[in-house]
Records
---
Amino acid sequence: MKRIRQRILRRKAPPPLILNRDGGFNVVRKGVPNFYWDDLYHLLLTLSWAKFLALVVTGYIVINVLFALGYLAIGDGIEHARHGNFLDTFFFSVQTMATIGYGAMYPRTLSANVLVSIEALLGLLGVAMATGLMFARFSIGKARVLFSRVAVITPYNDMPTLMFRVANERENWILEAQIHLTLVRSEISTEGYEMRRFYDLPLVRSHSPLFALTWTVMHAIDENSPLYGVSAAEIAKDNMELLMIFTGLDETLSQTIHARHSFISGEILWNMRFVDILSRTKDGRRCIDYSHFHDVIPLENGNLLPNQWRKLE
């Protein structure tokens, strides 16, 4: 019987319990402030680029407006500036803060010189801080690790096995790559308390010394596995979530990089296997077809797993 390839697109499932698709935490924090002044550096590093640039531009304009108002308040203290003209004092402030000094306008009174000295100092500090923050944001090592959209439970060496794919999207090596897989599920104690429990899932191979191609991560569902005897319905009922943490050393950046992903019940498929994406070119080089990275095909009838199996007594 001819096999038919079937592309499994992401199902419309509820959002992940702990992780969003971008790896961010899907957790609402209550009872604690969202901002600490003593943690300003961390906030400025974690802001999105759009918010960071908007903050820099807004701060730059506000500071120059305040100094422009200060120059207006001291009276006629700037040579060649029109008396009481806000635009002249604003652009004079811009020249002073950037230490441009065109020479067309310059301070001529003591109070104006004092304001210029303060603004020049603040300008130097502001440029140094903005430059440092820009460099720090650019230098943060970020992983470009691709996770498959779905995981599958399929027989492998006569053993039900959980599988998913990982790939390095960059054309370089990730050294000492490691993956840690954890099962999160809701459990109710004998007293009736509902708690989220974390169970480590041992992998067939959790470490790769040189990671450049693809990696099929596998967890054998044997008698010692927390998933042993668990059905597809129980995965959904207990709000199970598979969390994976990827770490490695990027050889280009010489920095440790991290990536995280999760699968929920609607993204764990039974009796499917991933489409083979590795091949060789005519000159013998390895080729990876990322266009089929997320594709799976159904198993033949003789290899099917039941959607539920009972634990051995």
---
Amino acid sequence: MEGPASEEAERRAEEHARGIREQTPAEKFPAVYGCTEDNPEPHFIGWRVDVDPDELFASGKAWGVTVRRVAVA
């Protein structure tokens, strides 16, 4: 192996030998954010699997609805 892949593998091997462990990135899940009558500032409303953003907006219960990928530990 040559080039960047080789250099990356070598770097990881050296870090592993020194006891440095690579942190695994947190998994990201789609979350629905928006504004509601109770809280006019954009805020977390629920997880995308539980909340339909289109239906939420169409019902008038929320506006400024967005779906963001949020890291979950």
---
Amino acid sequence: MRFLIVAAIAALMLCSCSISKEPRETPNPPFAISKSKNLTPLLVFSFQHHTGIVLPRKAVESELPELTTELRGAWLEFGWGDEGFYRSEEVTLSLAFRALAYPTPSVMHIATSSRPLHYDYAYTPAHIFHLTDKQRKILVQRIALQFSRDEKGNLQLLGSGRYGESRFYRACHRFFFPRTCNAWTADHLCAIGYQVRAVTAPGLFKELEKLTNEVDSPSLQNLISP
């Protein structure tokens, strides 16, 4: 009973908005990208109550060659979530409640762009980190395992994505509360050494704010495109 009450509250929160790029009042400054070939930029973003991650396309080519062949932009944005909620044009309370209260099929949403990051993520909460080669390999391998594959080992394309050049693919795991898209993002960050835990986007970004202040990265002085 307690679980259903919590899920109902979370559903009401999610139902107040759709997954879209809601602009902030003031833009982020240009994101500082390291020039070092040994460091890979990782952007963590939040679109309203949904979070995900962005990596250079070249950073995932080894583990997801099919994906990088189909989507040719310099950056790839990865998001995970409930299929019905994520793909619906109209978000309703019943749809949000079902997504949170019951195990439901999930999807991966992949968007691509070749513009500098501060163009596409200027008006959304975002933090950037720089990964070592070991961190990159761990993260990319984990992401590759999120995709469901058919009997021939191919990714399962479901159709066009929500915005820009993007696509939906069948994902492996079931979606339910508290296994939200934000917990998904946090789990990947934990796997590469960033100690964050959250089930909501505001909760995750509070932890990221603390983490960003603690990270000492001299590479943040150089601005480049991928």
